[in-house]
Amino acid sequence: MQGFKNEIPPARFFKYIFLIVLGLSIATLLGIFLIDPYKIWRKNSIAGVNEITLEVPSPIQMHAAVLNSALHTPNILILGSSRVRRGFNSRYASQLFNANVQVSGIDLLPLSAATELYSAMSKHTHIKKLYFEVNYFTSNACGRFFEYPQIEDLWSSTIVNFNPRDAAEQSLKTLKINVLGPRILHGYFDRLGNYHEKRGKGMEKSEPDQSIVNREFKYIERKCQRQANKIEDSKNLIALFKATQAQGTEVILLVLPTSPNWQASIRQAGLETAIDQWKKNISEQARQFHFIFLDFERDADFFSSIYTGNDTPKFWDSSHFSSPIGNFLLEHMARSDNGSEAHGNH
Amino acid sequence: MSFTSYWFVLAFLPLSAYAYRHLLSKSHFNLLLPLLISLVFYYLNDAHNLLLFCASMGANWLLAGLIGRNREKTRYLALAIAGNLSFLAFYKYAKFFVVPGAAFPVLPLGISYFTFTQIAFLVDTARGQARSTNPLEYALFVAWFPHLPSGPLLSHKDMLPQFLAAPGISSSLLPAPRDYAVGLTLFSMGLFKKSCIAPIFHYAQGDVFLRAGQGDPIGLVETWIACLGFLFETYYDFCGYSEMAMGISRMFGIHLPVNFHAPFKSSSPVEFWTRWHVTLGAFMRDYLYRPLTKKRQVWRHYAALFVVMMAVAIWHGATVPLLVFGVYQGLLVTGNHALRRWNLVSRKGGKLQHWAGRVFTLAAIGFSVSLWATPDWQEANHVVRGLLGAGHAPVWPGGFFGMTAILAAIAFNWSAPSLIDLVAKELPAWSVQLKKSVSSKLAWKPNLAWAAAVALGLFLALINLSAVKEFKYAGF
Q: How far apart, in whole angstroms, are the C-alpha atoms of residue B269 and residue B364?
């Protein structure tokens, strides 16, 4: 202890500081590297360390998606919003399609960002098929929900904007959930890659409350201002189709299912006709480019036969479907991929 | 390139310190080298205004020469001060005069700090208290880069003797190994305060000010937490910056004055303002308060205090809440002086008076945050109501985190020695001019314990750096 307090020559003082900072930095970087908190470079998980993973935070989602595609060179890309991320399991998709499938869900991804994101992701790999989620509410018909990074500068901005604090925090959270189990009220992906949300006792299988759904709906509706058929939607889709055609990528547009409460809200707001018209327009555009349009937005009866287990509801909230539904959809998509007639193919 | 950027911490600072150490031995680089480093720093931060900055230095050096040589000193001095203040006011308050929608000029880096520093030099030249300098010495004194972003305000009496300590001996500026050790300690701890501690208090404020701005209800406890959170955030931000500036300068062998000296240990508002932003207080005392109180009349003394507090408030911004802030602080300090004058409180006082004073000072300054942190009178009024429990919300919707953070900050600031106290022995006497430093067993010395503390602080700061906001006082 005395040695701890004894005065030392300044040169040794600097040496200790340098070594401690270096040691701590290396340990932190090693921890981040092992845990891979944004699920970018890891192929195999480490038991008790990162088998269970957390959702990638919004600001880093695009960076993570691009880096992931550069490192793992997928053949099939399923791209969309958080519904894609939470609903689809990339491991199961890879088995079904017998290919390297990447599932990337960016929170409220607008159509305007699609082409740039696709171009960035296909820079280092040849994507044969692109399943792209389209949604009336997060298309350009709606006001911007987030500021998205400039995709063109994504590589340089990833390095410049790399935030060691957030990466270290996310690593610690991932480690904690793996060691202590999923006790937090956040969503997480289990060992098999299926998304879960910890819910209150007795609420495990319940549908989200209609009043909450109505509130969410009103907020999104206000943002969207009921402006379907916007010219931008059409422009962005054509740009995406041209970019994909140039790369030899086949596009399949997906409309994903929503909860019965959400559909009730749509009916209540009298938006059914506008949404149908919007779907018709984009399916027509897809047809002109010889691309496919898959509409899975169906009545609740369509999914009634699916068994989701004891703790898992069909929908976590108004719009996020659970992985049993996601698996069911993937099976449909895979069957369609193999040439069979998919349900809802226009 | 802020002090809190990776570019500065990992590239500019080590490279410039290295170049300084190795090139300074060549005599012709003496003074020219630190000036060059300072101008490069200015260019990297605000290239657009570098010429303007140089023009300001050149004009003021010429004016100082004119004032020094001429018999009509007062007329030239008045012109010089008016010119400098107009220059400052043009940039600081341009937004109030330009047509809505038109672009207003970008504030040059450190405009307040280099303008005040030069005004002080001009006044002292007229008083015959400043030595004549050559352009190189003068430019280095004004442009010395660690003080440019947010001060401290420099006095030629402290700075010029350091540059001229041993004329002709090129190594007079060369830092000793111990200077690097002290400099690194101050820099790392300042960076830690800015990047790790200040954000805690930003977070602790929650959305109280936002809700107040929208006219939504705010509760008593949460409003107090938000106001004290703002106060501690500002303290750790500005004090952190000031310690970083001292540390950087020390690594180049040059001492800067202390700008914050444990302000929360103050047991009166008067004491608080002698510990908070010390160099601004000293500037106001020497160049505004003293000239106004040449005739020893009590009312002049009180009026001068009011003028000083109003000047400080206007410097912060020309908004109605800030003008009221000036009046409020004027009332606090004049009231404090009046109580002393009438012997209702003694300067030394007992323990009870001391602790009651600390609580009162913290509460009074915390209350003034309602005027300091709000952009318009409507919001300020709403926050004041919240502080008085009339914010139309239950008394107790205060976050546990915010409450814990504020209580911990109060306990720590009241009981633990400040960093300046701990390194006081390593600083020149003029640098810690205000308060006696407390001797502590924890006093700084180059040992393993301090190396570990500095390394941990530096490591945590480096981890946090990319999420750090700009310094609060950078735009002044």
A: 8
Kindly determine whether residue B462 and residue A25, on different chains, have CB atoms separated by under 8 Å. yes
Name the residue in chain A with its Cα closest to that of B195.
A165
Largest CA distance in chain B: 70
What is the spatial distance between Cα A138 and Cα B141, in angstroms, rounded to a whole number?
57
- Neighbouring residues of B356: CB distance < 8 A, sequence distance ≥ 6: none
- ipTM (interface predicted TM): 0.85
CB B395 within 8 A of CB B221: yes
Among the residue ranges B29-38, B115-124, B161-170, B406-415, the one predicted with the least confidence is: B161-170
Rounded to whole angstroms, the Cα distance separating B365 from B331 reads 12
Average pLDDT over residues B311-316: 89
Q: What angle (nearest 5°) sits at the alpha carbon of residue A303, between those of residues A299 and A308?
A: 140
- Residues of A within an 8 Å Cβ radius of B: 3-14, 16-21, 24-25, 28, 161-166, 168
Q: Are A262 and A318 in contact (CB under 8 A)?
A: yes
What is the rounded CA–CA span in Å between residue B33 and residue B23? 8
Q: What is the mean pLDDT of residues B92-115?
A: 80
B298 vs A53, more confident: A53
> In chain B, which residues have their Cβ closer than 8 Å to the Cβ of A169?
none
B150: which residues sit within 8 A by CB, 6+ positions away?
B110, B113, B238, B241, B242, B245, B471, B473, B474, B476
> What is the identity of the amino acid at B243?
E
Kindly provide the b/e burial profile for residues B95-115, where b requires at least 16 CB atoms within 10 angstroms of the residue's own CB.
Answer: eeeeeeeeeeeebbbbbbbbb
Contact between A20 and A14 under an 8 Å Cβ cutoff? The reply is no
Alpha helices in B342-431 (DSSP H): 351-372, 377-387, 400-415, 419-423
Residue B402 has pLDDT above 50, yes or no: yes
Q: Is the pLDDT of residue B397 over 50?
A: yes
Whether residues B456 and A10 touch (CB distance < 8 A) is answered with no
Write the residue in A8, A18, A163 that is nearest to B448 by C-beta: A8
SS3 B165: coil
A6-49 tens-digit pLDDT: 889 989 999 999 999 999 999 999 999 999 888 888 778 888 88
B52 by Cβ neighbours in 10 Å (0-12 / 13-18 / 19+) ranks as: middle
Burial of B353 (0-12, 13-18, 19+ CB in 10 A): middle
Counting every residue, how long is chain B? Answer: 476
Is A168 close to B446, i.e. CB distance below 8 A? no
Q: What are phi and psi of A133, to 5 degrees?
A: -80, 130
pLDDT beyond 60 at A147 = no
